[in-house]
Write a sequence for this structure.
């Protein structure tokens, strides 16, 4: 069973501050996704990382996949109130056609981010 | 761009009743996943279908069943509903070989009274 430990669980900061959310596991993942979820809505995909050491940037958001593909981080620069929400990391292990796992996602516990004006 | 469609968006049932949730994946996506998200919890994988065949099974109760039809839409059937089944149910779809970028629907909020 793959487990993803996401931290911190809650984060309350002022507008303009920087923050980092971590996602760690003892398992290797084929890919790792970061989602943002609004209350009562479905998770919205922000980014997918697949290569160890990969870094992707999405405006003020920087995503990194660990060299061993066991951990990832999300860094937000100069946070804004519009960044407020639930951030989820999710990992997947894709096996070949002879395997039994076809890409189901294992989610971290989520980080509730609140950015105060 | 077309997204994943789920219906109904809200459903209220009594204990021991049955419920059917529907999911219409993004066109040309070949895989559908169902997840359950309890209050304050992260989504938990229930079951998935690849090309209309069950491909993986997670923590899905025996009271629940699902299938994927020839037009690739999927239905999650839930019987003998319990209070603990109250949750958000999400469907996600993808093309299996695309690094597993799953796209989620808006969810169905099931309330069991």
């Amino acid at each position: 069973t793959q487990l993803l430990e996401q931290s911190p669980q809650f984060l309350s900061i002022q507008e303009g501050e920087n923050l980092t959310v971590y996602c760690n596991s003892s398992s290797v993942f084929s890919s790792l996704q970061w989602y943002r979820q609004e209350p009562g809505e479905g998770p919205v995909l922000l980014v997918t990382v697949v290569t160890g050491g990969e870094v992707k940037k999405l405006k003020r958001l920087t995503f990194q996949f660990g060299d061993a593909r066991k951990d990832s981080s999300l860094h937000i620069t100069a946070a804004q109130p519009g960044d407020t929400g639930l951030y989820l990391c999710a990992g997947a292990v894709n096996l070949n056609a002879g395997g039994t796992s076809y890409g189901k996602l294992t989610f971290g516990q989520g980080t509730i981010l609140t950015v105060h004006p | 761009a077309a997204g994943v469609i789920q219906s109904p968006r809200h459903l209220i049932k009594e204990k021991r009743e049955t419920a059917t949730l529907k999911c219409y994946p993004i066109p040309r996506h070949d895989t559908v996943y169902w997840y359950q998200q309890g209050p304050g919890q992260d989504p938990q994988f229930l079951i998935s279908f690849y090309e209309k065949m069950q491909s993986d099974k997670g923590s899905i109760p025996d009271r629940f069943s699902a299938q994927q039809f020839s037009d690739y839409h999927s239905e999650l059937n839930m019987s003998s509903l319990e209070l603990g089944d109250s949750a958000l149910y999400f469907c996600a779809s993808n093309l299996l070989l695309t690094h597993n970028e799953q796209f989620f629907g808006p969810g169905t909020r099931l309330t069991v009274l």
Summary: The CA atoms of residues 29 and 93 of chain A lie 5 Å apart.
